[in-house]
Each structure stands twice: as structure tokens, then as C-alpha cells.
Write a structure and sequence with these properties.
Elements lengths: L6 H4 L3 H13 L4 H7 L11 E2 L7 E2 L13 H35 L11 H10 L9 H17 L13 H10 L6 H11 L8 H31 L7 E3 L9 E6 L3 H11 L2 H9 L5 E6 H11 L3 E3 L4 H6 L3 E6 L7 H6 L5 E4 L10 E2 L7 H14 L14 E3 L5 H9 L7 H9 L4 E5 L11 H12 L2 E5 L1 H10 L13 H10 L4 E3 L6 H13 L12 E5 L5 H12 L3 E4 L17 H14 L2 E4 L3 H19 L14 H8 L3 H9 L4
Parallel strand pairs: 4-5, 4-7, 5-6, 7-8, 8-9, 11-12, 11-14, 12-13, 14-15, 15-16
Antiparallel strand pairs: 1-2, 3-10
Helix pairs in contact: 4-6, 4-8, 4-9, 4-22, 5-6, 5-9, 6-9, 8-9, 9-21, 9-22, 10-12, 10-15, 18-19, 18-24
Length: 669
């Protein structure tokens, strides 16, 4: 049995600690306590268990051992990994399919209450695919784009359309290795076919298709989801928001939306502000409806509407333990089945809304876009009617302010304005060494690690080293709760060069780019960095690293794999699902080598699992510096920067031209 941790060991968030103490006092279990009481299976977690047929499960624990069918450890590990990647790709891409259908319905005025809010983005995206826009209504353009998107899922031959947005050199690499996806659903289906008993039994060949499946997510389904969401709900731009459990209100009906579908959450936001619903809440004795979010739904409505985020994945139970939540409305992904049993200790209603997801014991109100407004009203009235059933509540007095909403489009604008929007200033800052490199710190929480600790520790340490950090998903909310996403907050802890950039542009040291599906925004940023010049001709040359410090889901593995396929070095925290037992098995490192050295040789990116956060930071900085050296740009030297304003200008003007160039750009005159 694992050691029982204190609340302080379970989470670094004081609000979470307060709720964990309350849970213990009430005798209520949480994901944290269950993780402490349940030791993971060391065979399954290392990828050494095969259960794809009823002759097994086969557990390979000895050197040279094979399964009943003769499957070797590397075959079994590769099969397990590709199945996880396929499941993650299916989840994200199915979300993209739903958004494409909603775009189609909206274009044909069949989705009540929805409209095309960002015509400029619609036209820009349409131009990628040669869809004409001149002389056509937004609805006509959206209808054709939606048909194109919907077709990508069932397509059997050819190429998934959004891959044309990758750097040209990257597309050629995919073609050379035969991993360009043909159709999104086709690649997911083939992943499961290949891993049926008696099929593909060569680890390297299996993992070739794992890459193709992951690309169909990142440069397919997820990219479609992000674009469609922006077109329908607006492309994010910076807004002011709040985060942590303190956003719950004692005098209001607290409704939490949790999951991943903006089609539901955006409508709940709109309806919650209708006079009819506000008056209904007041008649029930409340001051109104207080809407907040958990997980990626929180990120969706936070970055577009400024709706506060109650927390990330591991906060979902803790929010209910406050006793102040009238209803938690859930749709798909990352929803704990434990919520229903937990809610029985309080008055909270768990309301499921998706035709794909039901929780036994939850109240089901199925959401359909053609009746969006009346269904949203029904859901909210259920929550309001529950206000009278409140008992004792305890809301932590913890909130932090933040500025989310840094879409690719807004970053482009903020660097050059509407006149000359460009990533060139960012490229120049990297070339000169003011910005050492870029780190995308993304992904889930994991109850087996200290909640939010590794996300925020790695982020803070990289900022000190002048590494610009971008966030998505639960990692973004972790830093939000720490106050790293607000204006100049925390700049005293930021390296001198990066500090200059943040002060000059007026941005936080960490940029919130959206939900997990919005990792495609990061791919778009990296692509434009390449296109704007000075940092190589492909993503694998950019001084950038992706990190998922507290990962736990299959979606994270799909994200990691498509980032590797795009040329990125990706570091995962925690344990490796293909680690084997090296002290016992000489063959157990074959798959680890394939996804590291093997993938790097093919795609320029690699996937590594590094449990220790300090080692993650060391590996990140070494990789960034290696890429800087390969590009021949200035060696990183923090002592060259940090002085700004009139004093700095006067100092530079006093230098000879050659020395001034060297001071500014790290090059000799």
C-alpha cells in the first residue's frame, strides 16, 4: 500500500488543501486518497501486460519471455502504446467532428442561438483550402468549409486537408516515411486492426502507424475543432478572468460546466445571463447564477468570455466538497465516475448532457444544438431549483486574477499590430538571445503526483532561464492559480531578457493558449516562426520543447506523438507506459529506443519520460541550447540583457558600432 500523504503533500494549492482537509473530516474519499490506497500494477504500468485475446492476459516479467501467441515484449508495448494513442486521437477528433457538424448546422440556420462570430477567421481558413469567399455570404462559405471538414473523417484515400498548413519540409518528411494521414477515422480504425491478435507484430512498423494516427489528430481533428470553435464563438483575445475555488459565491446559484464541448458551455453562458433566468434565480432566494468551469470547458469559456475557472481536472471533486455547487453539468472527457457517489454527501446535482456519456445515478438532460436554448434553460432551472437544498458550505477564500486568450492570431497582432502583424519580433528576440527558447507546458493532472506542483515548478524555473512559456489545458489553470498569468505579475522571477520582452509588449510571462485541443495553436505558432525566417526551415530546428509534466490520459499520448511527428522534443513526467523492467529484461528498452532515438532520426522529434522535474528542466535547456548552436545564433548569455529605458539607450549609443551590434544581437559587426 502506498504511503498516505498529507493534504500539503497531495496538492500545492491552498484551496485544494482546505477541501482535502474537509473531505477527511467528513470521511469522504477523493482521487487523492484513492491514489494513496491503491498501488499501481507495476506490470501493466510498464506496458508488459497483453490482454487483447482471451488466452491471456499474458504478463511478461522474465528476460526472453513471450506471450502465449509468441508476442515479444516490444510488440506488446508497441501495441499498448498505439492503442492508447488511437483512443486519444479518437476523443479529440470526435470533438472536431461535432464542431464541424455544428458549423454546418449553423450555416444552414438549423442550430438555435448559434451564429458565425468571426467572419475574418472563416475567410482566412477558407483560403487555405481554396474555398472562394468573394461575393458569398458567411453562411455559404461556412457551409462549404463544414462539408470539407466533415469529409476528412470518413475519407479513405488521399491526404487529410489541414496537413497542408504544416511547413513544406515537414510535409515532405511525412510523405517520405508514409505517415501522412489519409482519413481521420481510417487511421484510428487501422490502429486497432493492426493490433488485433495475429496482425502487425513488428514494433517499429506498429509505431510508424502510431505517428500517422497521431498526425490525424493534431493536423486533422484537433485543428478542425479549434478552427470551427473560433469561427463560431470568436477567436480568443486577452480578457480578464479569475481562477480557483474562491470563484464560487455564497449568495448565488453556483453552476459548474465540466468537460470539453464549447457548443454546450457557450450556450449555458448565454442563457445564464438572460433576464428570465436571473429572475428565476432571484425568486429562488439567490442573487443570480454564478457560472464557473472545470477542466478544458473552463478554458473554453474563460478565454472567450472571461467566465471564472473553478479549477482543473483534480479540482472537480473538491468543488463539490465545498457544498456550494448546485449543479455540475458535464459532457465528455475527463469526468470522474466518482462524482455521483460524492454528490450524495451534498446537494449537488450531476447532470450529464452528451448522447455519448452517461454516469450511473446522474440526472441526464441530453443536449441537442437544434433546441439549444430551451435545453440550456431546463438545465439551469434544475440547478436553481436545487438552491434551497443547500446545507453547510465552505468556500476557500482563494482566487487569482489572470489574462488568458492568447490565440495564434492575437500573438501575431500583438507583435506587429494590424499594419504589420508578424512573428518576426519574436524570432528576433530568440535570435538575439533575449528569449532563450520556447516551452509548451501542457496537459493533465495526475493524482499520483503532487497536484499542480510539477507544472508550476517547471514553469517558474524555465522563466528564470529566459524561456518563454505557453500553456494549454489543466497546466494553464495550474499556473493561473499561482498568479503567473497576469500582466507583470511574477516578472521579478523572470530572466532579464524575457522580462524586457514582457515589459515591452505588455504580456504575462506565461501565455494561456486555450484547452487541450488547442495545442494545434502551438503547432500554428511554430509553423509561422519557421515561415517568418531566421530560425530554420522546419519546426525541428526551432529552440522549443513540449512538456506534459503531470500527464495521465490517452489524449496526452496522442498530443505528444503528433508534436514529435511535427519535429518537437517532448518530455512527459511520471512513469513511462513502455518502460518495462530494465533490471530484469534486456529487451524491454526496444520501444523506449524507438520513440526516442528512432523517432528523432525519422522526424527530428523524440518522446522521453523523465520523472524528476529538475532533470526535465535540465533536458529542456540542453535541447534549446543545442538547437541555438545548430542555427548559429547568439549563445545564450543572461548578463547581456536586463537594462532597459533611457539609461540603456544612452549606454548603447556610447559604444562603437561593432560593439553595439554585438550587444544588441550577439553578432560581430
Amino acid at each position: 500500500m502506498a504511503k498516505k500523504r498529507t493534504p500539503q503533500e497531495q496538492s500545492i494549492d491552498p484551496a485544494a488543501q482546505q477541501m482535502l482537509i474537509r473531505a477527511e473530516e467528513l470521511g469522504i474519499g477523493t482521487a487523492f486518497s484513492r491514489a494513496d490506497s491503491m498501488s499501481p500494477c507495476n506490470i501493466g504500468s510498464a506496458g508488459m501486460c497483453c490482454k487483447i485475446c482471451s488466452m491471456g492476459p499474458c504478463r511478461l516479467t522474465k528476460d526472453g519471455q513471450v506471450g502465449i501467441c509468441g508476442a515479444t515484449i516490444d510488440t506488446i508495448q508497441a501495441r499498448n502504446l498505439i492503442r492508447a494513442i488511437a483512443a486519444g486521437a479518437a476523443a479529440h477528433s470526435d470533438h472536431g467532428r461535432d464542431m464541424a457538424f455544428l458549423l454546418k448546422s449553423t450555416a444552414n440556420k438549423e442550430a438555435e442561438g448559434y451564429e458565425i462570430r468571426d467572419v475574418a477567421k472563416l475567410h482566412r481558413v477558407a483560403s487555405y483550402y481554396d474555398i472562394p469567399v468573394n461575393g458569398r455570404t458567411a453562411e455559404e462559405v461556412a457551409d462549404e468549409l463544414a462539408d470539407l471538414y466533415i469529409g476528412q473523417f470518413g475519407q479513405q484515400k488521399g491526404t487529410v486537408a489541414p496537413v497542408i498548413r504544416a511547413p513544406e519540409k515537414r510535409q515532405k518528411i511525412w510523405e517520405e516515411h508514409g505517415v501522412t494521414p489519409r482519413g481521420i477515422d481510417r487511421e484510428v480504425v487501422e490502429a486497432f486492426h493492426r493490433t488485433h491478435i495475429g496482425d502487425d507484430q513488428d514494433a517499429e512498423h506498429i509505431l510508424l502507424h502510431a505517428i500517422r494516427t497521431a498526425i490525424s489528430d493534431g493536423w486533422g481533428g484537433s485543428m478542425i475543432a479549434t478552427d470551427a470553435s473560433d469561427i463560431l464563438f470568436g477567436t480568443p483575445a486577452p480578457v480578464f478572468g479569475k481562477a480557483n475555488l474562491g470563484v464560487l459565491k455564497e449568495n448565488m446559484v453556483n453552476v459548474i460546466v465540466h468537460g470539453h464541448e464549447p457548443s454546450l458551455s457557450e450556450m449555458i453562458v448565454a442563457v445564464s445571463q438572460m433576464p428570465e433566468i436571473v429572475e428565476y434565480a432571484k425568486a429562488a432566494g439567490a442573487d443570480g447564477v454564478n457560472l464557473t468551469g472545470i477542466c478544458c470547458t473552463a478554458n473554453e469559456i474563460l478565454m472567450r468570455q472571461g467566465i471564472p475557472a473553478a479549477g482543473n481536472f483534480l479540482d472537480q471533486e473538491l468543488a463539490i466538497i465545498t457544498g456550494a455547487v448546485e449543479a455540475m453539468i458535464v459532457d465528455v472527457q475527463c469526468i470522474m465516475q466518482a462524482l455521483v457517489a460524492l454528490s450524495e454527501n451534498f446537494h449537488t446535482k450531476i447532470i450529464t448532457t452528451s448522447p455519448k456519456v452517461k454516469l450511473k445515478g446522474a440526472h441526464h438532460i441530453e443536449f441537442h444544438e437544434d433546441r439549444a436554448i430551451p435545453i440550456a434553460k431546463e438545465i439551469l432551472k434544475n440547478a436553481i431549483d436545487n438552491f434551497k437544498n443547500r446545507k453547510e458550505i465552505e468556500i476557500p477564500d482563494r482566487t487569482e486574477s489572470l489574462v488568458p486568450g492568447f490565440s495564434h492570431e492575437y500573438i501575431n497582432y500583438m507583435l506587429g499590430g494590424s499594419y504589420r502583424a508578424s512573428f518576426r519580433p519574436l524570432n528576433d528576440a530568440i535570435i538575439s538571445g533575449r528569449i532563450r527558447g520556447i516551452a509548451a507546458v501542457v496537459g493533465c493532472n495526475n493524482a499520483r503526483t503532487q497536484h499542480d506542483h510539477i507544472h508550476t515548478y517547471v514553469t517558474k524555473e524555465l522563466l528564470k532561464q529566459d524561456v518563454m512559456v505557453v500553456h494549454t489545458g489543466c497546466g494553464a489553470i495550474a499556473s493561473s492559480k499561482l498568479g503567473l498569468l497576469l500582466g507583470d505579475a511574477g516578472l521579478s522571477e523572470v530572466g532579464p531578457g524575457l522580462k524586457e520582452i514582457c515589459e515591452t509588449i505588455g504580456i504575462p510571462p506565461v501565455l494561456h493558449m486555450g484547452s487541450c485541443v488547442d495545442n494545434t495553436r502551438i503547432l500554428t505558432v511554430l509553423t509561422q516562426i519557421v515561415e517568418d525566417g531566421g530560425l530554420g526551415d522546419d519546426i525541428d530546428q526551432v529552440p522549443a520543447v513540449g512538456l506534459a509534466p503531470e500527464w495521465m490520459s490517452e489524449k496526452a499520448l496522442s498530443i505528444g506523438a503528433y508534436c514529435v511527428a511535427s519535429g518537437a522534443y517532448v518530455i512527459f513526467g511520471g512513469s513511462s507506459p513502455v518502460s518495462g523492467m530494465p533490471d530484469k529484461m534486456s529487451d524491454s528498452d526496444i520501444v523506449t529506443d524507438l520513440i526516442g532515438r528512432g523517432w528523432e532520426e525519422k522526424y527530428g522529434g523524440k518522446l522521453e519520460f523523465i520523472p524528476d522535474p529538475d532533470e526535465m528542466i535540465k533536458a529542456t535547456l540542453e535541447h534549446i541550447d543545442k538547437k541555438r548552436a545548430a542555427l548559429g545564433i547568439a549563445e545564450y548569455d543572461p548578463n547581456r540583457f536586463g537594462k532597459s529605458g533611457d539609461k540603456r539607450i544612452l549606454e548603447l549609443e556610447a559604444l562603437p558600432v561593432e560593439e553595439r551590434l554585438e550587444a544588441l544581437y550577439g553578432v560581430e559587426g
